Amino acid sequence: MASHRRLKQPSRTRVTVLTTAAAAAVALSSQAANAAPSEKPSKDEVKAKVDKLYEEAEHATEKYNGAKEKQEKLQKEVSTIQDNVARGQEDLNELRDSMGLAAAAQYRTGSIDSSLQLFLSSNPDDYLDKASTADQLSSQQVEQLKKIQEKQRELAQDRAEASDKLKDLAATRTELGSQKKEVQAKLAEAQKLLNTLTAAEKAALAAADERASRSASERVDLGNTAPASGRAMAAFQAAQSKIGSPYVYGASGPSSFDCSGLTSWAFAQAGVSIPRTSQAQAGAGTQIYSQSDLKVGDLVIFYGDQHHVGFYAGNGQILHAPRTGTVVRYESINNMPFQFGVRI
To answer: Phi and psi at residue 331, in whole multiples of 5°?
Structure first.
């Protein structure tokens, strides 16, 4: 007769642990299933986050513009100083050559004096400090040596200034790269959020932007507000000619713009030079704190840190380059936190 072994039953403790673990796993999976739909932000939440990122990107853009403007200014200054150094060195060489010719002539006649020999064999910076030897020079030679000393001092100052400017330029280039990376990071983050939307949601946002960006001037009632001045009106009309042009950070025309790029470009068309950044433009003229006192062509500054600027267009409207993904267009002055106007 075959023998049968009785199977060992699992212990009560083990059964309890397994049962608890299984229940926990079911609960977690149930929670995950319930949480998954709510983790995906709604279209409106995505839009709010994206708009905030675009605002931060524009803030970084104005810092980028400031660094870029400083870099261009420093490059011009360094170039000018280096040209001065080159010309100064040529002048110094000519002065030394003329002294050398005088020495050669004296040498040929056998009349070269010890003081001139000293000049030719040592640094003339300390030469005139030796009064006993200076007495042996002719007045013309003394004058030549003074000119050489002065030119050497000028060259030393120019070279030191060039060195300082080059260090400043290197630091500015580093800052420029940092601001560019910040702008790109904000835009990339915004795009990542937009990519979470469905095709229908993306289409809805695009349609809303398209409606906002339509350039049909007949739908914008600008009223009959007087211009701030003839030049301000000319600048405003130049900006009007760019309605529909895309916003591109760091761009200042003629085919794409950021906010301060549009205003600085437009005033340049009217023959007026204004600073490149919105913060600098905020201090470029008379500030106007009441919206009712604004005139067509006045600049309008927005946000507490003054990182956005546009033109006052009349009847509570502004003309500006809003942000990435939009074009130059009209918009209500109340769509952003107004700070003050600036009359150039």
So the answer is: -160, 155
